[in-house]
Design brief:
The complex is a heterodimer. Chain A is mainly α. Helices cover 50% and strands 0% of the residues of chain A. Chain A has one domain (3-79): Non-ribosomal Peptide Synthetase Peptidyl Carrier Protein, Chain A, CATH 1.10.1200.10. The longest helix of chain B is centred in the middle third of the chain and has 23 residues, at 220-242. Chain B has 10 helices and 15 strands. The chains are: A mainly alpha, B alpha/beta.
Chain lengths: 86, 351
């Protein structure tokens, strides 16, 4: 992970809001997966593509199946040094 | 790594056929919410699909394409030494469907005929096999590749039902001493065999009380990771085998898996949009035959004015993936047709 591609938590939440087609205020670390309409199989593919394209991160699909809240996605960015303030 | 260089072959022509019946995803799909359909159509890029009503099989589509191609090439039937049918939607488990097509094409007994059971990766594999045969004494080989995936998707499964169309193809390959070499790169990862599978109906589970077991099961997220892991190195390695760069190749002809995936791949591999023709909007994902269909309907939408270098890319069920880097001459016969109904002589069991 090159340091230039790392983004702030705020920007990461905005990115997720855009992918899930939700207003920014509806996306926070503790929001549950089932409360986000756009977090379906198509939404997952969009996240996988975005993480690959922007950060070179491949998301483990078994882990993805078990993600329950938005913070699980932030954690993937953090684990890959893609959060500048994480 | 399974890399192979084959000298001295040419593609004399490519013909394709699709069912004439068009299913418009936005207009005709029922059982899903409109917003859901719009979202799927936008992502997969499939506006419409040419689909069989169940009566048209891969054999019919391939037979129609092969008949058109032989007519156009004026190849005598007894000049064909080999017939390969690549399909995962055969008419019967036995005999090989290639034998039925051999009969209806009135090919000679000296023509070797067999089926190959591959799907999305089938075209580069089939072309490699045909070119090997043409290079080993079989002067002229017909490669047929057909699938009817729309028939094995469940109307209840939104992930697959709106995606697939049906198509058949025939590619004529012949010896041409002195022709430029073709490069092939063919690979497999059987650990992902269940990422695309029809669990019942084969000999492991011939019958099931659960009808869903007879339909395609697809693991979309695993397939995504497979594709981004395998296809970019496949393209890079095949270019490197041939000592070429992206600029030296006229067309990267992808198996039309889904628009989202193909655009992601093209971006990742820095392939210009004009080099990666997309026909998925009109035909859907027709499995491996989407590669020759993209040649007849995309690459050759306008007649070619000069020789084109094409990288043909298949990837998916198996998991299996492969690339073929080949040339297509402007004098190659190219045609496409729509098929109204079955054309193979039907099997009528004796009473």
């Amino acid at each position: 992970m090159s340091i230039e591609t790392a983004i702030s938590t705020e920007d990461a939440l905005s990115m997720l809001a855009e992918i899930f087609e939700e207003p920014r205020e509806n996306i926070a670390p503790d929001i549950k997966r089932e409360d986000i309409e756009g977090w379906d199989s198509l939404g997952e593919l969009s996240i996988m593509a975005e993480f690959d394209e922007r950060f070179g991160i491949t998301i483990d699909t078994e882990a993805l199946d078990n993600f329950a809240i938005v913070d699980d996605l932030l954690q993937v960015l953090k684990d890959n040094q893609a959060l500048s303030d994480g | 790594m399974s890399q192979s260089v084959i000298d001295g072959c040419r593609i004399a022509g490519i013909a394709t056929a699709t069912p004439s019946h068009v299913f418009n995803n936005t207009r005709d799909a029922t059982g899903f919410e409109k917003a859901e359909i719009r979202k799927i159509v936008a992502m997969a890029g499939v506006k419409q699909r040419h689909v069989s009503d169940g009566s048209i099989c891969s054999s019919d589509l391939c037979l129609a394409a092969a008949g058109d191609l032989l007519e156009k090439l004026q190849w005598p039937r007894d000049s064909i030494d080999g017939l390969i049918l690549v399909t995962q939607t055969p008419d019967y488990f036995l005999p090989s469907t290639s034998c039925l097509i051999h009969r209806d094409l009135k090919l000679a007994p000296h023509c070797a005929s067999f089926d190959i059971g591959l799907g999305c990766s089938g075209y580069p594999y089939g072309l490699w096999m045909a070119a090997m045969m043409a290079n080993n004494g079989l002067k002229r080989v017909l490669l047929l590749h057909g699938e009817t995936p729309s028939v094995f998707t469940s109307p209840q499964d939104r992930a697959t039902y709106l995606l697939f169309g049906d198509a058949g193809s025939a590619t004529a390959i012949e010896q041409q001493p002195g022709a430029a070499p073709w490069y092939f790169n063919l690979q497999t990862d059987g650990s992902g065999f269940d990422d695309l599978i029809i669990p019942a109906g084969g000999f492991r589970q011939r019958f099931s009380d659960d009808r869903r077991q007879y339909y395609l099961h697809m693991n979309g997220t695993d397939l995504f990771n497979f594709t981004i892991k395998r296809v970019p190195p496949l393209i890079a390695d095949t270019l490197s085998m041939a000592g070429l760069a992206v600029d030296d190749v006229d067309h990267f002809v992808f198996h039309q898996s889904n628009q989202f995936m193909m655009k992601h791949l093209a971006k990742k591999c820095k392939l210009p949009a004009e080099k990666t023709p997309l026909i998925i909007g009109e035909f859907g994902n027709s499995g491996g035959p989407s590669v020759p269909l993209t040649i007849t309907r995309g690459v050759c939408a306008e007649p070619l004015s000069q020789r084109r270098k094409m990288m043909l890319l298949g990837y998916g069920v198996g998991l299996s993936w492969g690339a073929g880097l080949v040339d297509l001459d402007p004098d190659a016969a190219i045609c496409h047709r729509e098929l109204e109904g079955p054309c193979l002589t039907p099997y009528e069991p004796e009473e």
